[in-house]
Give the backbone structure.
Amino acid sequence: MNNKAQEKAPLLDAILKYTSEPITHFDVPGHKKRQNPEITEAFGERVLKLDANSTPELDMLGHPTGVILQAENLLADAFGASHAFMLVNGSTSGVQYMILTACRPNDKIIMPRNVHKSAINALIMSGAQPVFVAPETDYNFGIMNGVRFESIKKAIAEHPDAKAVFLINPTYFGAASDLRAIVKLAHRHKMAVLVDESHGAHFPFHPEFPDSAMEAGADMSTISLHKTGGSLTQSSALLLNERFYRRSQVRTVINLFQTTSASYLLMSSIDLARRKLATQGRQIFDKLLAELIEAKKTITAIPGLAVLNRDYVDGSGVYDYDDTKIVVKVNGLGLTGFQVYNILKKDYNVQAELAETYVVLFIASIGDDAGTLKKLTDALADISSRFYGAPEFLVEMREMMLEPKTVISPRDAYYSVKRQVALEEAAGEVCGESIMIYPPGIPLAIPGERLTHEIIEHYKFYKSQECVVINDEENPDYVTVLGTP
Ligand SMILES: Cc1ncc(COP(=O)(O)O)c(C=O)c1O
């Protein structure tokens, strides 16, 4: 990384200069940066000024040759990639661009089943055939982790014609797989490695974090700079190691979908976040990691709670672990994770990232410090003092985990004739949509999979748990399946 160059923020400088010039605008956006009382009152005048259209001095995201290209080159340098593409539609779009670059219709792609819905939707768009690999499951915490090297090895041996391996680094709950070994193996079999790194944008900036995809030699990865890197919501980046794919190939796919009016607020926030991570990340994360060790010690000592830590690393499903994730097991208080999630918000004003049956996930990032962590540990201690002593909340976890039975490809299922059936009657049918709770947005069933009694029961359990259940039907008591109405 070029430390001196990383102190620059060319896109931010360009937009700031542009806003200070007395330009009379006969271009879009239509607010013309003039006083618009409603917007100004809601967002502040500065937002209007920074909200600009592409011009020669501000460059163009679809075909960058000026300040956007300079900012993307600095981004690539900071993340160890040969090229970086700024994205303004989140990592959802990056995951889709990666899969659409790698796969033509009917190409096979190996992936763990606990992928985000964006990857499933990319299978529908591309027509690629998934070869699902079961992730390792932790029945004690009730969460899914990474994939074992041996599971990927077996899938590669059984499907030597697959075009790519898709991985998650890390999972929502912080588990990293053995990326380096998987990349080596995949490359030996002429398969590319694509990585959903939405929860790992901070990895290159501290040696204690797991390897980033680019460090491990992967071919493409997508980072949500907005999730853990400190930029504005929706701003992400696709990173490329030019080996299997040329930069122009990726750019062509991106330009099939990406807006021609990319937000300069989002893009310049990437420039700022990258500068901060590259120039101050090491010191910031040194401090945060030390504070997290103390916070996790405190949580471990609270009656009824347990928290994941370094001991969790088992060399397989958790080959390495991201310590910025705080996964707290709460069912020892006689409550579900969903209940504790709601209590934390209602009674303590603490917003967790997500809940699962036994756990609540808190994400610590560049925006946290000992003060915010103390608010969390104090709230958890108080909840424990209120509820500890009740019998542990337990469900039959084995029945709740996924065992997908793919009948037809997601794309063929998506384009099939479909009908709605009541949930009670859905077992045995082939699913015509993705059903999930959000977050995390990992589908329980996807188009083309056989719905089992266990999946339906799992879904009904979630519906009863005050969490956001998503399916296509407006009436969540029905599910879309294949077949003539
Ligand atoms: C694992 C994973 N991949 C992809 C995404 C999509 O990212 P974004 O919200 O930036 O579109 C998410 C979002 O939560 C995610 O958890």
